[in-house]
Design a protein that fits this description.
Layout lengths: L1 H18 L12 E2 L3 E3 L5 E3 L2 E7 H4 L3 E5 L5 E11 L2 E8 L2 E2 L15 E11 L2 E5 L2 E6 L1
Parallel strand pairs: 1-10, 4-11
Antiparallel strand pairs: 2-5, 3-4, 5-8, 6-7, 6-9, 9-10, 9-11
């Protein structure tokens, strides 16, 4: 099951990037660091190097906050790719809070949906870098 989940997440990530138009700032051209990101208050699961959390739709409806495992970095900006079956939407987010104002899809989120956090721009000592991505599997 976990191997299937791994391949599904990789396939979805590549599909999401191919189907949406990207907003600035760009995600390329920066160093990528293994600075872990997680949803505050939820357990981080890992399947062959892919980090994710399983969170109920009701828990996500009002929003959530992100945190980095290394507090010497600051989270500046990231993208959310929200997959609802065949439809994929992109939401650029500044800061660490996701709410109904910056991610209006939260009001209609349901079990089976997938949220991908990507292009996670972090900053340390004036230098911007990227952190590794993170997934949220929406459960009942």
């Amino acid at each position: 099951m976990r191997v299937f989940l791994l391949f599904f997440l990789l396939y979805l990530n590549l599909s999401l990037k191919a189907q949406v138009t990207h907003h600035d700032p760009p995600c390329g051209g920066m160093d990528i660091y293994e600075v872990g990101i997680h949803i505050k208050g939820y357990k981080v699961l890992d399947t062959q190097g892919i980090s994710y959390s399983e969170i109920s739709a009701d828990s996500l409806k009002n929003g959530f906050s992100l945190a980095l495992t290394d507090s010497s970095y600051k989270l500046k900006w990231f993208r959310i790719y929200y997959s609802q079956g065949e439809k994929v939407s992109e939401y650029p987010i500044t800061g660490f809070s996701v709410n109904l104002k910056n991610a209006n899809f939260l009001k209609k989120i349901k079990a089976g949906d997938l949220i991908s956090l990507d292009c996670i721009n972090i900053k340390k000592e004036g230098i911007f870098s990227l952190s590794t991505g993170f997934y949220i599997i929406v459960t009942e």
